[in-house]
Amino acid sequence: MSAFPTPPRLSARSLDAGYPGRRVIENLDLEVEPGRITMIIGANACGKSTLLGVLARLHAPLGGEVLLDDVDVASIPRRRFAQRVGLLPQHPVAPDGLTVGELVARGRHPHRGVFERWSAADTAQVDDALRLTGVEALADRPVGDLSGGQRQRVWIAMALAQNPEILLLDEPTTFLDLSHQLEVLDLLVELNRVQGTTIVVVLHELNLAARYADDLVVMREGRIVAQGSPRDVLTAEVVSDAFALDALVMPDPLTGTPLVVPRPGGAHLTPDPT
User: Fold this and answer.
1) Sheet containing 63-68: which strands, arranged edge to edge?
2) Which among 81, 73, 85, 67 has a CA at the least distance from the CA of 163?
3) Homologous superfamily of 10-268 in CATH?
4) What are the sequence ranges of the domains in the chain?
5) Measured between alpha carbons, how far is 113 from 132 in angstroms, rounded to an integer?
6) Distances (CA, A) of 11 to 2, 14, 34, 85
7) What is the DSSP secondary-structure string of 231-247?
């Protein structure tokens, strides 16, 4: 029996998505496995961030629907949806001078009415978020003074203060050096294991996605070409199809997860148009 309450199911049915004059995703079906870490990978402009944005209700689908426990999210009040689903966008920006504690406290907004006073429960949730992300000692420091890795931890803390059952993150390791990338991904694994939070991450780096994901979703040109465990999904054929890359895929000597090693000159393939 799971130690956590069953988290909600997030899914997409026959999803079309994009922007005026440009359809990025067409007729896509997706089931996010509750209580697991799902990573969405694919080449640039394949629709990864568009998909995450539609799942997060940043923009409406052009067709089909996004469901939370089989309820169309368009019918769920925004405040109620934000209580259950949190989002860390790709390039979050904090107002000048805002401290870490003030930023993390903003995660409580979906749980407080317009005229509600700050409560002991709000304080406890913010304190827990600061503790879980290891940034409680930074609470009084301006966000702008932090390193890249510290800032990402603080943004994740704000999302955790929201207390979501599902956390969506768009490229949370972008522009971080390798040690900080590992720091952020280790944190997400810890949060998933400790809190049972369903985590969905758009990630650029194949080998880190394979190492940290329970489930991989591989996209190409607005469609899913493979989905499942990293060992089942990340094959040389899938890497060739999705990334136009000739590569050797072998077990990582440390983790046993798939390790993608590009062959010299292997980045010049033309993706199969079928």
Assistant:
1) 22-32, 10-19, 63-68, 71-72
2) 85
3) P-loop containing nucleotide triphosphate hydrolases (3.40.50.300)
4) 10-268
5) 26
6) 21, 10, 10, 13
7) HHH--HHHHHHHH---E
Report the C-alpha gap between 241 and 4 in whole angstroms: 38
| List of long-range contacts for 255-264, beta carbons under 8 Å, 24+ apart | 255/211, 257/210, 257/211, 257/230, 257/231, 258/207, 258/210, 258/230, 258/231, 258/234, 259/207, 259/210, 260/206, 260/207, 260/210, 260/234
How do residues 116-166 score in pLDDT, each as one tens digit? 788 888 999 999 999 988 999 999 999 999 988 899 899 999 998 998 999
d(CA 55, CA 35): 17
135, 106, 134: which is closest to 122 by C-alpha? 106
Tokens 């489930």 correspond to: 215
pLDDT by residue (tens digit) across 63-75? 999 999 999 999 9
Residue with tokens 């979703």: 217
pTM of the model: 0.90
Q: What are phi and psi of 57, to 5 degrees?
A: 65, 25
Residue 272 pLDDT level (bands cut at 50, 70, 90): very low
